[in-house]
Amino acid sequence: MGDLRDVFKYFIVAAIVSALFLQGIGPVNVAAEEQEPVIRIGVVPTAESLVMGAEGAFDVVDKETGEVLIAGAEGTVDVELGGAAVVQTNYRLQVASTTSESYKEDWLERAAAAGYVTYVEEFGDFDRLLIGKFPADAGWSERAAFKNDIVAAGLGGSDSYWRVITVGEGEMALNVTYAGETATAANAVQIIAASERVSINGKPYRGLAEAGFNSTGTLAGINELMMEEYLYGVVPHELPPNPYGELEAQKSQAIAARTYALSNMGKRSADGYDLLPTTSDQVYGGSAAEHPISTDAIDGTKGIVATYDGKLITAVYHSTSGGATANNEDVWNSGATDYLRGTHVAQKGNSLKYVPALDVYKNSDEGESLRKVKKGDFEADWSRYYRWNFEWTAEEMSEVLSLYYNIDVGEVYEINVLEHSSSGRVAEIEFVTENGTFYEYKDRIRWALQYINASGDPAVLLSTLFIIEPVTDEVNGEVTGFKTNGGGWGHGVGMSQVGAVGMAEAGYSYEVILKHFYKGIELETRY
Predict the structure, then answer these.
(1) Total-model pTM
(2) Which of 3, 271, 457, 465 is deepest in the core (most CB within 10 A)?
(3) Nearest to 54 by CA among 222, 251, 194
């Protein structure tokens, strides 16, 4: 019997491979059959209370014991922290992220010896080290003085920054109320509905809803569902079908998003879920975000992932490269990754001479000539951020840098680009100011050199592919501000999403698109 089963398996696999080839997918490897995984998304990462519901009848179940706490016909339940829990929200100064246990223990000992309150936040494979505890209404000057003390004591650097942290302390419990009836649970609770349609804080999702405890002792609203259903709510947000409806580009996005999710399962397990629904991981909008074009792309590539040497790749992507993507080590402090190599985003071969240079844009009429010439570039027709410009007043630049470095920098005299990476991105920048000279590197430059958006608030610079120059008074030559001309949106590593759209429009398949942006990869069906 065993031999006969093997024969049947051979013909089944052969039929699958043949069908995929006839559909134009090409040589996709079929791996050993696996079950489609379940994924957990922290759609509400921290809260003191949640409102959860379902379409039709549902049960509220103790996750650990399986006991049905409440049986509901319709509507919503209110979940609140109970027991002896006390929730506090404070400013805490984050000074480091580390994977070294010895470094963490040494830092904690030195901080304790100096009499400082500390807090360690687990985050995937590393720990975030925070110090101090200030009320949420603490003033900037008070916190700035504290930071200076921490830097002087050698417990943090000038790049330390303040975060607002909410922490629950004491014995935790959940109070679940439905139709005037309240049940108390010591464990996480789940809403399970026959319809498999639930809601958390009014937002609809597939699968089930859960209220659990995160690593800070407050509530987390968690949506648990099948991987492909999760992608239904991701792909339309990451690559909106309107206007980016090219099916092969949507398929490329689906495979990249699936690969990212699978390779990051358990990333945030300390908080009770796998991923966040934001740009920290992938933007996830639940069932309300679903779109037929994206759903077709996901269904048409079910289970397909990108691998390198048989392992899932880190399938990072960004909106717009500006003409060329970047090597990962030129953007982040990480070792070179073979498949994350910078590449052109143009039609005419491998030569970077077809990528419009920033100095061409600088001397053009706000980029219009680039859109007329195009030079075969895939992005220029699709992204309004292919080329961009911003201008700061002297006061705005001082404000932006003071906010980032958490010190009053005073007048900004010069901004100098000291180093570029191979893709033309700024790798090191220098800010010469009245109160000192400050530096930043690689992708962190976008956070240091923020622009002032339409609402009047600082916002992260779109990319590090830019030229920056002073604006001077025509009469006396004094610096009155700074201006930048740049290109692209995002970190620039991996797949350019609008570049993928342009390639799809030109007739390329998702396999060609993915192998263009991720060098040397294979496509493999995991389930």
Answers:
(1) 0.75
(2) 465
(3) 194
